[in-house]
């Protein structure tokens, strides 16, 4: 069975990593965190957010935690800064002491955690009093055009296609995010949105990452018979809004959320 969770770095980079790196600086600009803090990046993946923190937030240190050893290795290779370290660990049981950091963040990961509210509670636990707990997740319900086109076409090819947008929207919406943050005892909770353009140079640039085999959409493609895979490809080619030069200009939106631990 093709895994739905990401663990292979190259497949993730081709499919979503390039967009993840664009969102991280916008999130940090929105966060406006003070300099000189210790950070933890929960579900750090291949290091997009940790790298942005090191580059733009002047941290004392950043600890990235991810359940995938391959991602941890990739993040350590990508973020070559002595202030950054990366560890294999579970978001629901962070390998950090109480009040160990000044700010806990998570980028595009909470919807993949089996118990996201527990992960938020852990982020609050390891954050010092008066510190910040913040995250961002893709707006799977309405804001991820590249995936909306995909799953709309997928359900035409297979009526039983497991639409990740519907499943993840149970977490990736303002009200559930606000509920998780207030439920973890965080104060002054704010939810907002950031958007980025996702421009593909051609149809192949859009389609090829779906052939990587990991994650919900690529996993679905991998399970299709070749004739149905070709039907899906051709249906997408006919529906995507291609410009005269062949490029496909779409938009991706992420929800951001932050709160403060009680002083």
Descriptors for this entry?
single chain, 263 residues, alpha/beta, Rossmann fold, 10 helices, disordered N terminus
Description of the molecule:
This protein has 263 residues and is an alpha/beta fold. It has one domain (9-260): Rossmann fold. The protein is built from ten helices and seven strands. It has helices at residues 9-31, 48-56, 69-78, 116-125, 145-157, 164-168, 174-183, 203-207, 216-223, 226-239, and strands spanning 38-42, 61-66, 84-88, 101-107, 127-138, 187-200, 248-260. Strands 3-2-1-4-5-7-6 form a seven-stranded mixed beta sheet. Strand 4 (101-107), helix 4 (116-125) and strand 5 (127-138) form a beta-alpha-beta unit. The longest helix is centred in the first third of the chain and has 23 residues, at 9-31. The protein is globular and about 55 Å long. 45% of the residues are buried.
Q: What is the number of beta strands? A: 7
User: Can you count the helices?
Assistant: 10
Question: In CATH terms, what is the architecture?
Answer: 3-Layer(aba) Sandwich
What number of structural domains do the residues give? 1
| Helix and strand element order | HEHEHEEHEHHHEHHHE
Measured distance between first and last alpha carbons = 47 Å
Please give the CATH class.
Alpha Beta
Oligomer classification: single chain
Radius of gyration: 18 Å
The assigned structural class equals: alpha/beta
Q: At the third CATH level, what is the topology name?
A: Rossmann fold
Could you name the CATH homologous superfamily? Vaccinia Virus protein VP39
